[in-house]
Write a structure and sequence with these properties.
It holds the Pfam family AraC_binding. With 285 residues, the chain is α+β, with helices and mostly antiparallel strands. Helix 2 crosses helix 4, helix 3 packs antiparallel against helix 4 and helix 8 packs across helix 11. About 2% of the residues have low confidence.
């Protein structure tokens, strides 16, 4: 699922406050170009982000950069109550004063280290809950200047997390033990070899499991079919190459493992809503 937001709006921000989700109400797998913060107030479950599974429990905070595949799996007996903030990163960048420092660095650190969950002290949890309450009240009351107030609270929230991550960068964040080793290794292999043969027959052979078992466990743990997951990963990588290189669409299709330029064009437009050329023109700064 490619979740859609209004990128052309003057207020590219959305808050879902203290929402309780059972497995039946949880969104399917999704990827979007907005950044996302998820704080767990109560309950438990498992959160799949990029290639890693994390336990969700009270006080967990998750940072999800744009174009990162993720899905939450709330526990049926203890549904998760969480708050989620969605925002366009350019909204934050436009208001930053220092060129050598960005409050978005917390997302860069999460992506670089492939660690999307923060371990927080009780004091930090209290502070985060207060910021969420303030932003929720501003959204409800919509007094004059509420958008600016929301922006300032979000900036403070991000600054706190960036400083926290810089201070705690060496700490190990525990992951969920719910996936078998072959699954972890398969996800890592996909991430590092997007141009390779990533069809079921090839991957289950590497994992030494049967195709039916591989497919069943993969979908059970990630919420996605193998094909959908690989295609989404390849499109995300293609978006990165379109922005940071001058490579042709054909070259990018090859680097990302698409069987032809026409198939790349078709899939890219289906998942993003625009052509590769249009995406490049509108997202280069």
């Amino acid at each position: 699922m490619d979740k859609k937001f209004d990128d052309n709006g003057r207020y590219p921000y959305h808050l879902v406050y203290q929402d309780t989700k059972s497995p039946q109400r949880e969104l399917p797998d999704h990827v979007h170009n907005w950044f996302e913060l998820v704080y767990v107030h109560h309950g438990q479950g498992v959160f799949f982000i990029n290639q890693t599974f994390y336990d969700m429990n009270e006080g967990s905070l998750f940072l999800i950069p744009g174009d990162t595949i993720h899905r939450a799996f709330p526990d049926a007996d203890a549904p998760v109550t969480s708050s989620a903030i969605f925002f366009n990163a350019s909204w934050i960048r436009q208001g930053e004063q220092e060129s050598d420092f960005s409050v978005l660095r917390c997302f860069e650190l999460a992506a670089r280290n492939n660690r999307y969950r923060l371990s927080l002290s009780n004091e930090a949890r209290v502070l985060i809950v207060k910021h969420l309450q303030f932003m929720h009240e501003e959204q409800l009351q919509q007094k004059p200047g509420y958008r600016q107030a929301t922006f300032l609270h979000l900036q403070q929230f991000l600054l706190f997390m960036t400083r926290h991550m810089l201070d705690q960068n060496k700490d190990q964040v525990p992951t969920s033990a719910s996936q078998p080793l072959w699954m972890k290794e398969s996800l890592q292999y996909i991430d590092r070899n997007l141009s390779a043969d990533l069809r079921l027959a090839s991957l289950c052979k590497k994992a030494s499991v049967t195709p039916s078992h591989f497919s069943r466990v993969f979908r059970q743990l990630t919420g996605m079919t193998l094909t959908d997951y690989v295609v989404a990963k390849r499109v995300v990588y293609a978006k990165e190459l379109l922005i940071r290189t001058d490579d042709t669409s054909h070259d990018i299709a090859v680097q990302c493992g698409f069987e032809s330029s026409s198939y790349f064009f078709k899939v890219f437009k289906k998942l993003t809503g625009v052509t590769p050329l249009h995406y490049r023109k509108t997202n280069r700064f």
